[in-house]
Amino acid sequence: xxxxxxxxxxxxxxxxxxxxxxxxxxxxxxxxxxxxxxxxxxxxxxxxxxxxxxxxxxxxxxxxxxxxxxxxxxxxxxxxxxxxxxxxxxxxxxxxxxxxxxxxxxxx
Length: 108
Hints:
Elements: H1 13-24, E1 31-32, E2 36-40, E3 45-53, E4 56-61, E5 70-76, E6 82-94, E7 97-104
Antiparallel strand pairs: 1-3, 2-3, 2-5, 3-4, 4-7, 5-6, 6-7
């Protein structure tokens, strides 16, 4: 039987993945949340929200966002439209933009 490893001399991937997930997984529950979103900062773009948690959003936008970048995000939701300051916690670049996780910082 072949065991996949992250590195030839490293531990099996099956033991690494749970440790990574436990360390970086958000504690609060995600809820589907669909609204238009605009990003303002070094990168400027627009897109949609995919879901929300207590302190953040997952968005799909037509620009590239980099981890740890700070930006302003305008959420156009009729019930609670607002502008928030956010930190890009993670991003995954796509051919036409990216999907990113944002940590909402509020307007200080």
